Amino acid sequence: MSPARRLAAARVPRYTSYPTAADFTAAVGPVDAARWLNAIPAGESVSAYLHVPYCREICHYCGCHAKAVRRDEVVDAFRLSLQAEIALVARHLGSPARLGRISWGGGTPSVLGLDGLAAVLGELARHFEIEPDGEHAIELDPRAVDPGFAVGLAGLGVTRASLGVQDLDPRVQTAIGRIQPPAQVERAAEALRAAGISRLNFDLVYGLPHQSEVSLGETLAMVLAMAPSRVAFYGYAHLPARRANQRLIDEAALPGGEERLRQAEFIARSLEAAGFERVGIDHFARADDPLAEAARENRLHRNFQGYTDDPHPLLLGFGPSSISRLPGGFAQNESDVGRWRTSIAAGTLATRRGHADGGDDRERAGIIERLMCAFTVDLGETAGRFGDELALLRPLAAEGLVVLERGRVTMTPAGRPFVRLVAAVFDRFRTEGETAFSGSV
Ligand code: SF4
User: Fold this and answer.
1) Domain 360-441 in CATH 1.10.10.920
2) Closest Cα to residue 291, out of 275, 273, 308, 272?
3) Domain 21-318 CATH class label
4) pLDDT tens digit string along 10-63?
5) pLDDT per residue over 368-392, tens digit each?
6) Ligand 1: which residues within 6 Å by Cβ?
7) Following DSSP, what letter does each residue of 263-284 receive, concatenated?
8) Ligand 1 centroid to 95 CA: how many Å?
């Protein structure tokens, strides 16, 4: 088996955090989260993430915490609980905090409607000082964006939108249960730009059924004509044992590990040829986009949404399944919407699991983040303590994927697609034979 196939078949986390959410445990609960919220320093600028777990329908390929919703009463009830959670979290702060960045994700946040989004933002403004220059980003389904909605979002202060594009080939769209013709995506992008939301991310996916380099080339040509400032290209993670909706995907039409690797390389080559700068493993940005600037200046970070220029070390997560990064560790909310609502209604933080910082967690988190963001890390004087890890990397060095030099670990250009494997060597929670994660490419 070739190194590429062997490595592509390996299953390792995406390291949007360390430890990863899969390694969180029920040892962390509301009491810990309350203590950690109380420890946020006075006047600290933090980020907020609001998770809206509903979509009008569920796409076959979806791997998010999302449920189908038809009835507006369900959405309204959720929104009231979200507002109650904001007030509850604010009551646990030891002193007032400022919000330096707001991000909406899901699910489809637009199911709240403009009035619902405004009500939640009003609740945030009642309890936090919202910094006027902070980024305010939202994930959008292009099918739900029209000119009136775009103007409304701009009026709410939204500065960046991520459009879920995935793929523009009708055959692929049919196979993944998400029909959105290119003209519809184009109209959504134009509406947002006309409203003044000019920072647009396009989220695309490779490794989907029926995709080929030819079809991806056609999708990329249409995407480039729509001139996004960022493109994120994620590998589809097929986990039908855990995701019932993914059983609707025809496995026979999925590309294999080597084909996925070729698709990822083709996408990177095409976007770089079109003037995008590569950021980490799966993001591409125009040179004047803040993400590209952060990458050039070594200010890039990982968070639960991928690569970010967000400098705030602390994050408040609101909504079911959302994760907060607090002074003592990670606290993740209950994922079940009903149980999350019950907890909030009882006046109890909805923390269900998490991880309390301990041992050398922060040091390992820093090493993994530098590898994922910059493809190199200098272990410096600590290299002696990571002798076992460096020994594990020697076979990869022999294959020309990584260079080990006086305590510095650097991915070679050929090795970059496999950086998650190298990061995993520094992950003390990593267990052999883990199958819950997606393939490494
Ligand atoms: S719109 Fe996004 S979150 Fe909703 S079902 Fe489709 S992939 Fe999942």
Assistant:
1) yes
2) 308
3) alpha beta
4) 578 899 999 999 999 999 999 999 999 999 999 999 999 999 999 999 999 998
5) 999 999 999 999 888 889 999 999 9
6) 55, 58-59, 62, 64, 66, 106-108, 141, 164
7) HHHHHHHHHHHTTPEEETTTEE
8) 37
